[in-house]
Fold this sequence. Notes:
The protein has about 110 residues and is mostly beta strands. Helices cover about 0% and strands about 45% of the residues.
Amino acid sequence: MSLPLLTTATTMTCAHGGTVSGVPSATNAVAGAVLLCVGDTFTVTGCTFTVANAPSPCISVQWSGPATSVQCAGVAVLTEASTGLCLSAAQAPQGQVQIAASQTQVSGQ
Length: 109
């Protein structure tokens, strides 16, 4: 089953409402935005998560489950089925990326 590919225009948040943004390593575009790949850098801004009254915001994302049949510059691209794990500065898992909206013109598996 083919699923929409993630791009720089995809709307993503952490489980606590922070904004997830990808910095693409490739320049291939679909639907006017650049494709996001499994090895790209992802940052989280605006996360307000705290643990024991101490701030512990999500700051980065580690992805798994990229597309198996679509690559960009030799690297697997991300789809709506990919799983993004948000991490704190201490690399502690904080929850999964929530994908709110993505392009629907190009898909892959």
